[in-house]
Structure formats: C-alpha cells, structure tokens
Structure to design on (179 residues):
C-alpha cells in the first residue's frame, strides 16, 4: 500500500465513521485504487498538486458527461435528433443544422444582482453562438447585463459593456452586429 493510499484509507475510514451518509462512501474502492495508482506514479512534491488537480478535473468532467478533449466535428460525434438537426454526442449543448454548428451556452448573461441566465438581449444577441471551426473546446463567456422589468414578469437584458463581446467574437461567430 502506498503512502497516498494509506492516507486516503485512514481519512475515508474517519469520514465513514463520522458521516455515515457521506455520498462518496459508495466509491471508496475506486478512490483507494486511484490513490494507489497516483502513489505509484512517481509524483514529487512539485508535480503532485498539478497532477492531482488534473485528475480531479478530468474525473469531474467525465462524471458530468462532459468532454475532456476538443470536439472533432467528425460524423461519428453527431446524432440526428429531429429532421436535419444533429446533436453532438460528446457535448449535448452543441448542435448542427445546415452544416453549421452552434453551442447553446456560449454566453451566460450576468445581471447586476449577480444571477446568470441564458437567452437573448435587447440588442438581439443570443447565448447560442456559432462555432468557427473544429476542433472545438466549449467555452462560456460571462457578459454583464442590466436587467430591467419592462412589464409584470417580463424582463429585458441590456449589455452593460459591449467591449466584453470582443472576446466572444474572437472565439465564436457573433450572430449580430454591434451598435
């Protein structure tokens, strides 16, 4: 047993004893196996934090069924979900119609209250943006908006600083002209 696995076993035993309903209790064998592999991988005090972070990030994305490598755009990545509309089977927020692919979560609008949402702004800019090219790594830009209630339960979003859209336009095909 490596030092890493031994430490993990001791900590997991304490966790299970003190928090019997801990959600990770179902994954103890897998966690111990991963810690053993990590302990045997020869990580030094310098590289261990970076490698551990990369492992944690990869496991998180995989458990959330997100890609950990760029989307290729190859035919094998697409499933037809309705007449002529294809959905990427590696990232469910990527669609293709008429040969053009778009990412639903390209922009997240952040209000003055700090909440985020998706949709279309007063200026006509949508959260969904077209992908310039493959390979593609899904990326969400957070853009500040001013939220205003225009009638009961009807809200409008106005972009606070259009300069923030420059980064979006570098990464995606921005769907509207800036005024």
């Amino acid at each position: 047993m490596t030092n890493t696995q031994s430490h993990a076993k001791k900590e997991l035993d304490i966790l299970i004893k003190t928090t019997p309903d801990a959600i990770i209790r179902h994954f103890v064998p897998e966690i111990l196996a991963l810690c053993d592999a990590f302990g045997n991988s020869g990580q030094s005090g310098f590289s261990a934090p970076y490698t551990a972070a990369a492992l944690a990030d990869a496991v998180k994305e995989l458990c959330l069924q997100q890609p950990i490598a760029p989307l290729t755009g190859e035919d094998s990545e697409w499933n037809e979900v309705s007449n002529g509309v294809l959905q990427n089977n590696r990232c469910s927020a990527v669609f293709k119609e008429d040969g053009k692919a778009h990412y639903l979560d390209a922009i997240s609008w952040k209000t003055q209250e700090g909440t985020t949402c998706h949709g279309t702004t007063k200026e006509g800019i949508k959260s969904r943006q077209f992908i310039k090219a493959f390979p593609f790594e899904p990326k969400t830009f957070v853009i500040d908006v001013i939220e205003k209630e225009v009638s009961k339960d009807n809200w409008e979003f106005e972009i606070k600083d259009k300069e923030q859209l420059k980064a979006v336009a570098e990464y995606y095909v921005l769907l509207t002209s800036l005024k």
The two ends are 64 Å apart (CA to CA). The chain has a mean pLDDT of 94. The chain has two domains: 3-63, 75-173.
